[in-house]
Amino acid sequence: MTTASPATPDATLGASGAARAFGRSMFGKTLFDNRRVFTVWAVAAGLLTMMYAGFYPQITAGTASSVPEAIRGFGFDDMTSAAGYLQGAVFGLLVPLLATFYGAATGARMISADEESGYLDLLLSHPLGRTRLLLHRFAALAAGAVLIAVVVLGAVLAVRSSAGLQAVPVGGFTAQAVNLALLAVLFGALATGIGAATGAGRATVFGTTAGAGVLTYAVHGFAPQIGAAWLRRLTPFHYYIGGEPLKNGFRLADATVLAAATVVLIAAGAWRFNRRDLG
Questions:
Q1: Largest CB tally within 10 Å, which of 9, 84, 138, 270?
Q2: In this predicted structure, which of 69-73, 94-98, 108-112, 206-210 has the lowest mean pLDDT?
Q3: Which pTM value belongs to this model?
């Protein structure tokens, strides 16, 4: 019969060093674990942008005039100009919804999925505080959002000449891509914060966040139709595209509102996460 020998100082030092490295590399580990997820979202967004941006030469005055009045509030009020078309068909409809669902789905993975599977206990058994874990996970989500925005920017610039979109300056496209990343990060913060604060399951967090996104998107689009355009200012989509960055370029005030809301959501989630019984 053999007996377990006591741990040597070197072994103990090695174990603690590994634990410290584990804590320091949580951001990188999260990026690595989700690399395929981030890539799929980015490629899907890029292909969608390239495809719909490429349709612009086929738009005629007759096509533009046939847009139903009910959906003009979603950015379809000026379909003949390059900026107007892109603001409606690309950056006002499909791409922001995709960014919203990215934030909801990925944010639901950051804390909720780990807690639901029991993996969160293992993570927190290392010298890694709850706030640090949350921030590292969220930073990886934000990096994924930036990747999506960069790919979307590259996609629209790739077809800019062939699709006759030269009237929109590169600075306008860049400003819209920045706002797209901020929008995705905002909904990612909402999902991450809800999961951290409540301990709700992944499906519940995703459904709640996606539902909030669709609701605020609908309010932003339909508010002018019911004579309540002021409601738009209560939605993140107003600060994402209301300033028409494709035409007017980067607007610091709008970006600041999106960033500030993100900070508040993450701070609230972290505050509650640190005080919640995870048992």
A1: 138
A2: 69-73
A3: 0.87
Distance in angstroms between the alpha carbons of the first and the last residue of the chain:
38
Tell me the residue range of the domain where 72 lies: 25-275
Half-sphere exposure of 132 (CA within 13 A, CB side): 12
Q: How many domains does the chain have?
A: 1
The one-character DSSP state at 229 is: G
Residue spans of alpha helices (H) in 159-169? none
Cβ proximity of 131 and 273 under 8 Å: yes
- Residues with Cβ within 8 Å of 106's Cβ and at least 6 positions away in sequence, in order, are 34, 37, 38, 41, 141, 144, 188, 191
Which SS3 state, helix, strand or coil, does residue 74 take?
A: helix
**What three-state secondary structure class fits 248?**
helix
Contact, 100 vs 217, CB < 8 A?
A: yes
List, for residues 176-192, the tens digit of each pLDDT value.
Answer: 999 999 999 999 999 99
**Residue 180: which of 156, 206, 203 has the closest Cα?**
156
Place of tokens 């930073």: 139
Please name the residues in contact with 124: beta carbons below 8 A apart, sequence gap of 6 or more: 130, 133, 278
The answer to the question of residue 244 being in a domain is yes
